[in-house]
Amino acid sequence: MKSNLKIGIALSGGGVRGISHLGVLKGLNDAGIFPTKVSGTSAGAIAGAMYCDGYKPEEVLKIIVETNYFKFMRPAISLTGILKMNSVGDLFKLYLKHNSFNDLKIPLTVAATDIKKGKVVYFSEGELINPILASSCIPGMFDPIVINNSQYIDGGVLNNLPVEPLEGFCDYVIGVNCNQLPEESNIRNMKSLIERSVIMAMNSNVYSRKSKCDFFIESPGLGKYGVFDIKKAPELFQAGYDRVSQFIDENPAILELSTSEKKK
């Protein structure tokens, strides 16, 4: 008998590390666990949008591996960013043809940061692509995204694990973080110092929400990957998938969420 449980999955931001979310989603699906609602920040918003639009996780991985991202990058003539995020929207238009939250097969909420008001804003209806761009707009790297006269940047600045939109709607919430840091005995240069500091800050607001999750899945050591290390996409996908198998062995209670008859 299929479960009637409402299952929410919150996906963290983390740049290219967010590809591991696709492996996690495939691992959960293979175990018979399917979300009723998804929320995401930044890379989690992108992975969530593709998944909620009906793409299988491995199909999204194939798109990522085969895409030439440089042709979608445009310099910004601005003091607030190096690149224009809007040009990346052309890439999303190739695959999210409806450009509407309302047309997704699974309800999705994405988190972005209103830079002027200094607060998190959740988008879950209406136009889809601009909120995704806003949610993944890395400060300083991209110009802020303007929606209804407000400027937005990466949702991970204030909420890198948006479980709040799932509360009161879902019976169970699964949080997925893609930024677990390995121990570093030696910070090699300024770049590694800055990257590690940023991940630590993001993880702080993730871990503050961990108690809101019934299950919390975190693949070990993904923080060692660079934000734009796209060549590692298959490796990151596999890391997420492998972690689900380990997690199920360690937390068999999660299989109570499964629709499969082959529960352990």
From TrEMBL:
CDD domains, per the entry: Pat_PNPLA6_PNPLA7_NTE1_like (cd07205)
Chain span(s) of sequence motif GXSXG: 40-44
PROSITE patterns the UniProt entry points to: PNPLA (PS51635)
Keyword annotations of the record: Hydrolase, Lipid degradation, Lipid metabolism
Motif (GXGXXG): 13-18
Domain PNPLA: start-end pairs: 9-167
Protein name per its UniProtKB record: NTE family protein
Organism: Algoriphagus iocasae
